[in-house]
Write a structure and sequence with these properties.
GO terms for molecular function: sepiapterin reductase (NADP+) activity. It is found in: Cytoplasm. Its main location: cytoplasm. By secondary structure, the protein is α/β, with parallel strands linked by helices. It is built from ten helices and seven strands. A seven-stranded parallel sheet has the order 3-2-1-4-5-6-7, with helices on both faces. The model has no long low-confidence stretch (mean pLDDT about 90).
Length: about 260
């Protein structure tokens, strides 16, 4: 691919944090390949050739693998010296205790929340072998603290945290590569509580399935939800910083205070 020096792959770029991150990247002149079930016509109209899209159900691992076997990702990355991957797509479902969980919904959640990010990470790292490759998993506080009704969501996010820890061991940050050059850097980053459609679904979940529901209603009522745009600016700043990858599991709110 010719054009912008930095390229980025964003999963779930059509709404919420993903849409805001894609817009923030393109505002900075970074070309984006968006992966989602739908498309983002508003982003396409606003940013034109900076946005490339591929429609895919990321919970369909076989279909994702088939697409990753094509030259599409490699062609997009091209000779870019810096390649970003933001694994944002995910689902909070199924919510509830084990006896309320549909086994198929569990499988789909694991495919979307765990398999797809890991597959994309491997594919992007391969396509960007000569680049400064930076991978960010959008994690959650639920990865680090257990919540009633969120056994699947928390476990899948915890899997991303541990994936980042292990990947970082495969690509140690040598002193001469801490600030520039080729290699893989990774972080699983919790963004905080953001005002997205996922938050609306959480607030609509019956309290019998999610006893913490009132707490999330209070977040909205008390104005404690961050905006996707503010979150996106923080995420992109974080990814482009010289020190990205030093903290392998991190929280955006804590990083902002350092």
């Amino acid at each position: 691919m010719t054009g912008p020096v930095v390229t980025a792959v964003v999963s779930g770029h059509t709404q919420g944090i993903g849409a805001a991150v894609a817009a923030e990247l393109m505002t900075r002149g970074i070309a984006v390949l968006g992966l989602a079930r739908g498309t983002a016509p508003e982003l396409a109209a606003r940013f034109g050739p900076l946005l490339r899209e591929h429609q895919a159900d990321l919970a369909d691992s076989a279909a994702l693998a088939a697409w990753l076997a094509t030259p599409a990702l490699r062609d997009f990355v091209g000779a870019s010296p810096q390649v970003l991957l933001i694994n944002n797509a995910g689902t909070v479902e199924p919510v509830g205790a084990l006896h309320d969980q549909d086994p198929l919904a569990v499988a789909q959640a694991v495919a979307l929340n765990v398999a797809a990010p890991m597959m994309l990470a491997a594919a992007v790292a391969t396509a960007a072998r000569q680049a400064d490759c930076r991978i960010l998993h959008v994690s959650s506080g639920a990865a680090r603290n257990a919540y009633t009704g969120w056994s699947v969501y928390g476990a899948t996010k915890a899997a991303l945290d541990h994936h980042a820890r292990a990947v970082a061991l495969d690509y140690p940050l040598e002193p001469q590569a801490r600030d520039a050059g080729a290699g893989v850097r990774i972080c699983s980053l919790a963004p905080g509580v953001i005002d997205t459609a996922m938050q609306a679904r959480i607030r609509a979940t019956p309290e019998s399935r999610f006893p913490q529901r009132e707490r999330f209603i209070a977040f909205q009522r008390d104005g404690a939800l961050g905006s996707p745009e503010q979150c996106a600016a923080g995420i992109v700043d974080y990814m482009l910083a010289a020190g990205f990858g030093h903290a392998v599991v991190d929280d955006l709110r804590a990083a902002g205070s350092r």
